[in-house]
Amino acid sequence: MTQASLEQRISKLIRPEVRALHAYQVPPSTGMLKLDAMENPYQWSDATKQAWLDKLADVEINRYPEPQAQGVKDRLRQVMGIPSEYELMLGNGSDEIIQILAMAVAGDDVCVMAPEPSFVMYQMIATFCRIDYVGVPLDSQFDLDLSAMLEQIEARQPALIFLAQPNNPTGNLYSEEKIRRIAEASQGLVIVDEAYTAFTDCDSLSLLGDYDNLVLMRTLSKVGLAGLRLGLLIGKPEWLGEFDKLRLPYNINVLTQASAEFALEHYELFREQTAKLRQARSSLIEALQQLPQLQVWPSEANFVLVRSLEKPAAELHEALKGAGVLVKKLDGGHPALAGCLRINVSTPEENQRLLDALQAQL
Ligand code: PMP
Q: Which residues are annotated as modified residue N6-(pyridoxal phosphate)lysine in the UniProt record (predicted)?
């Protein structure tokens, strides 16, 4: 078989929209100060690590995991204060949950909607599942443009509406009133994505009782367990029972289950770390605001959105990389993010390293 005929065979079989995609890119980061992926920088103490490893020693790796991961769910319910009338479904990261939701509604004439710019996986997963995606621009303050959203809801009747609260990559919260108006106007399901809820005082648990068409999605990634890949969906059992049919068997592996149970039993540790990060966020924002070459947005998450006003963002990104600091370049993606970089909030020491590098490179 020649290369040309192989190419031909692939392009005949693989859907054109898949051919046009790029696989999710993660830049190399060995040895870098990693401020690009909203990870928690804090390590566990040696004693905590040892206690975790002792627990893992009891894991039976030759056995399939407990299929419902009930132990993890019970502890999540307790730590997050989730009332007993709601059900939980776990995913291999909340990315997997987005995919399950999309698979559940996929079909002809179905669309998924999200404000833009927001988390890119909403659109990517819609594409994976062959669902139309409707992006509704945020206003100039990165707030929801309610009338545009309501207009599109009426015109397109989206099956799913994703609202990241606070939003990635802009870091802001939407008002509860706007979320309520969207839920009321929608025939479809509204997913309030609270990936960053640990970094804000706001949460939407109380909305679950008011709407039949609203669920919450959360993750353990941002509080300090990104390596576990554990996301959760919270909602009425009637919805979750349907979605659970699409979850692959044993999607939460034995190591993740044991580690998550351990971590949730020591959740105070994560509360302390997120409190420290929230403090560090205020100091970082204040320091960034002192740099006249940057526009800086407020943030309710563990990252800060900035715009480079003088040096092109791509150049600044490269220069920071050269100085050993990796941040996320958003410039070149959504037009509203022209010139923008997203910077993870880290420890005071690492934030200072970032500030020094920025000062030298701006
Ligand atoms: N939702 C939002 C808004 C996010 O920013 C992210 C991660 N970047 C996710 C969901 C996915 O998180 P995970 O798959 O790690 O749970």
A: 222
